[in-house]
Amino acid sequence: MEKNILVVLVICCILGLASAQLKVGFYNSTCPRAELIIRGIVQQRFARDRSITAALLRMHFHDCFVRGCDASILIDSTPSKSSEKDAGPNLTVRGYDLIDAAKKALEAACPSTVSCADIITIATRDAVALSGGPPYAVPTGRRDGLISNSDDVNLPGPSLSVSQAFQFFRAKGMTLNEMVTLLGAHTVGVSHCSFFEDRLSNFQGSGKPDPTMDRALAARLLKICGAASNTDPTVFLDQGTSFVVDNQFYNQTVFRRGILQIDQELALDRSTAPLVKSFAANKVAFQQSFVNAMIKMSKIQVLVGKAGEIRKNCRVVNPRK
C-alpha cells in the first residue's frame, strides 16, 4: 500500500512540474496558425467520418496511459522491434492518417516546431467540440518521445471490475471521479462483439446471459454478434446518440444497457454509482468534469523543455546526428 501511495505521489509531482511548463498558446509566436491548421484537418475528416472523434479519443487515451502523452503510439514498428502500435490493445486504434496530414501541413508552415504529441491533444479536443462536446483550451508544449515498445502496453480491459480498472487510473495520478468521467468517452465509441459476447449467453461460464444486462438488449446484440461467424461485428456503446459527446452513456448504464462489463459496473458499484447517476441527471456537470479530466490526462508524464524531440515525421524518430 505504501509503495502504491509513493508511486502516485511521484506521478503527481511529475504532473505538477510538467503543467508548469505547458501553457495555452504555446505556439503563438513560433507557429501562430498551428491550432487553426490542425482544426482545419479535423473538420475536413469529420465532415465525411463522424466516427473520427471516437478514434482520436481512443488514440489519445492509449498514448497517455503507456509512456505518457508523448506520441509514442504513432511510431511504426521496424523489422527488429515491435512498437506500441502493434501491441494487441492497439491493433484497432485508427486515425493515424489524420495525424500524418496535420503534421505534413504543420511542417510546411513551421518546420520542426509543433510536436506530434500536441497534434494528438489538439485534434482530439477539436473532434470533441465538433461532436457536440464542450469546447476547451488545452495547454501545449509537449515534446515527442524517443521510445515505443509493444511490451510496455498494459491497458485496462473491458471486463475488469471497477476496483481493477481504477488501479490503472490511480497509477497515472487520476481519481475515481476522473476515471468515471473518462470512460464517458464511450458515448461515441464502438466495440467489437468479441469484447462482450460472453455477457450475452455464457456469462462467466454460467451458460446464461449476464443478469446485469437488459434482456432485450442482450437478445438484440446476440443476433448481431451471432449473425456472422467469420467476422467480428461492432456495435455502438451508446445506442441513442452514437456520434454525440453527451451524458447519455450514463443514462443507459443506469438502465442496465451498458455494453461492456466495465461500463455497466460503473452504475452498479457502490463507489461509482452516485457519480454515474449525477452525470446521467446533469449534462453540464458531466461536461465540466470531462473538460477537467481530459486536460489532466493530457498532462500525464509529458516531455517538456529539452526532453524528447519534435519529430518531423510522427511515425519515426528523427535521425540521430
Total separate domains:
2
CATH class term of the largest domain: Mainly Alpha
Structural class designation: mainly alpha
SSE order = HHHHHHHEHHEHHHH
CATH architecture of the largest domain: Orthogonal Bundle
Which stretches are low in confidence, meaning pLDDT under 50 for 5 or more residues running? none
For this structure, the CATH topology of the largest domain is: Peroxidase, domain 1
Overall pLDDT metric: 93
Give the CA-CA distance, first to last residue: 44 Å
Radius of gyration: 20 Å
Approximate helicity band:
40-55%
Shape: globular
Largest sheet: 2 strands, antiparallel
Strand content: under 5%
Per DSSP E runs of 2 or more residues, the count of β-strands stands at 2
Strand order of the largest sheet: 1-2
Report the total helices. Answer: 13
